[in-house]
Amino acid sequence: MISEKNVASVFNGFWEETLPLLTPSFVRVFNEAHCEELVEQPSSKFLRIPIAPEVTKHDLVAEFAFCAAEASHATGKAVSELEKGPKTVKHIYEKAVLFLRRYDSADGEFLLNDVEVEEAFKLADQYQCFFDYLHLRHTEIKFRPKIKGAGFLGGCTADLSAGDTLYEIKAISRNLSGKDIRQLLIYLGLRSAADESQWEYAGFFNPRRALHYRFSVEHLIYRTSGGKSKAEVFDRLLRFLDSRGIELDTPF
After folding, report:
1. Could you tell me which of 19, 106, 140, 184 has the fewest CB atoms within 10 Å of its CB?
2. Sign of the CA dihedral 77, 134, 29, 25?
3. How far is CA 165 from CA 18, 123, 213, in A?
4. Are residues 104 and 167 in the same domain?
5. Which of 110, 139, 168 is the last residue of a domain?
């Protein structure tokens, strides 16, 4: 089954025609111009968290951290408090494995080592620092917003809605790539067809490197499409998805 990540990574002809200026050189400038290093903010509590040598399951560590941050936000408990409860840790781990199904084991074996769990909780702490930095009310933060699918792309789950901004979480050591930006635009394009509130801004948060990106959706599309409006580009995306002739509207 195709996912939004697949759509963002393939169909090069469509993307080159729709966003012809979203080139490697543009992305390089984007990383320089829009990247905010949160550790350098006044009185910053953010940390850079390099990958420890003992950490091998990078994606599971990142998903565990995201689930821990989500649990902290839902319960109002500090991440450090969640870390002390073995049952809570097991529940967070199981939720992360459920999302990253390839780690599911028949005997329920806990596949993260102690260093990986410790690093995951350090990453989870960064989220609360991020929410404090954004100065938003608790109710303005929503994990995993659901987005209705279109055509051959089924319903999607984005990462984080924060007020008027949709954030994609990238706990990675590399810079952002063009496919990362395209994936975020897919979510925004799908939401544009729904009778729901729209995000005027979009961004990325990297809890590992303590990096923050936030930008106007309209401005980014104008720059990368060669002057087209957000409505034009999103309409083109939706028509492309519908033209494939496969209807799927269930989350995956």
Report:
1. 106
2. positive
3. 23, 21, 11
4. no
5. 139
* Mean pLDDT score, 188-199: 93
Q: Whose CA is closest to 143, among 165, 129, 158, 121?
A: 158
Render pLDDT for 148-175 as a digit per residue (tens, 0 to 9).
999 999 999 999 999 999 999 999 999 9
- Among 130, 56, 68, residue whose Cα is nearest residue 96: 68
Cβ neighbourhood burial of 11 (10 Å; 0-12, 13-18, 19+):
middle
Q: How far apart are alpha carbons 22 and 129 in whole angstroms?
A: 31
- C-alpha distances (whole Å) from 59 to each of 11, 85, 109, 158, 235 are 25, 23, 17, 16, 33
Enter the pTM of the model.
Answer: 0.92
* pLDDT at residue 109, rounded to an integer: 85
Does position 211 have pLDDT exceeding 60, yes or no?
A: yes
* Bridge partners, 215 (sequence order): 202
Cα separation, 114 vs 149, whole angstroms: 39
What tokens appear for 242 in the block? 């519908």
Of 245, 171, 163, 161, give the one whose Cα is nearest residue 206: 171
Contact residues for 172 (Cβ-Cβ < 8 A; gap 6+) = 206, 208, 209
What are the residues facing 160 on neighbouring strands? 143, 167
Name the 3-class secondary structure at 213: strand
Query: How far from 223 is each of 179, 227, 229, 239, CA to CA, in Å?
Result: 16, 6, 10, 21
- Structurally, how many domains does the chain consist of? 2
CA gyration radius, the chain: 19
Q: What's the pLDDT at 115?
A: 97
Same domain, 71 and 190: no
Whether residue 20 lies inside any domain: the answer is: yes
